[in-house]
Design a protein that fits this description.
Pfam families: SIR2 (PF02146). This protein is of the alpha/beta class and about 240 residues long. It has a domain of about 160 residues: 2-Layer Sandwich (SIR2/SIRT2 'Small Domain'). The chain contains nine helices and nine strands. The strands form two sheets. It has a six-stranded parallel sheet with strand order 3-2-1-7-8-9, with helices on both faces. A hairpin with a 5-residue loop joins strand 4 and strand 5.
Length: about 240
């Protein structure tokens, strides 16, 4: 039995699964990641500044010009998102995602913690009113005169206690924690693994190895292949 087959069989037998997902989950949908050779940070000096609270405050035009490049409203959920949603029919499934593209929600997953927020939730910094993201892409000025911004966690901003609580609860609930498409180096997201149950298994499906304390199963390669195989097994198991 191959490692892939063994991991799939264990996932099918689990009761509760929590997925910790990163940018590599959305690249098959045509959304660039951040740090690869073709990522959005490539060739930029201090790219983190462009996604910082300081940039938003001091140079809102520069922030707005950069953030608009992150929107891909025509992108569709891929087989990874779809398989995670399919698992909900037979398992208790949670997703905690670093991604701000909303594709897990669009795929139909119901227990999703968008750890860094969503580009598609936009509000006015002055009056607090929410507006459609399409209005923001047309202009970052609200009718009241205030500036709009997406509800994402920028560099220098903190996480709400509710977000942390929900993410921790999702990890604590899992028999198996699956880390997919992330370097798993950004805090506090990578610290969530410390809240897993003592006997919970950890699976990693990633293009590159990640470093974790304790025992884990790592499958290095294209996550699309793994999730296509898992999706097929799910369909075969249905009556």
């Amino acid at each position: 039995m191959t490692k892939e087959t063994a991991m799939i069989e264990q996932l099918l037998q689990a009761k509760s699964i929590t997925f910790l997902t990163g940018a590599g989950v959305s690249t098959p949908s045509g959304i660039p990641d951040y740090r690869s050779l073709h990522g959005i940070y490539q060739g930029l000096d201090q790219p983190e500044y462009l996604l910082s609270a300081t940039c938003l405050k001091r140079e809102p035009e520069k922030f707005y010009s950069f953030i608009k490049q992150l929107y891909h409203p025509d992108a569709l959920p891929n087989v990874i998102h779809q398989t995670i949603h399919e698992l909900e029919k037979t398992h208790n499934v949670w997703v905690v995602s670093q991604n701000i593209d909303g594709l897990h929600d669009r795929a139909g997953s119901t227990q999703v913690v968008n750890f860094h927020g969503s580009l598609y939730h936009v509000y006015c910094q002055s009056c607090g009113k929410e507006v459609p993201y399409a209005d923001y892409l047309a202009s970052d000025r609200h009718l009241c005169g205030g500036r709009l911004r997406p509800a994402i966690v920028l560099y220098e901003e903190g996480f709400t206690p509710q977000t942390i609580k929900e993410a921790v609860r999702a990890v604590e609930a899992a028999d198996i924690v699956v880390i997919v498409g992330t370097t798993f180096q950004v805090h506090p997201f990578c610290d969530l693994i410390e809240y897993k149950q003592k006997n919970a298994q950890v699976f990693v499906v990633n293009q590159t190895p990640i470093h974790l304390r304790g025992q884990k199963e790592q499958l290095i390669g294209n996550a699309v292949d793994f999730f296509q195989a898992l999706y097929q097994k799910l369909k075969e198991a249905q009556p």
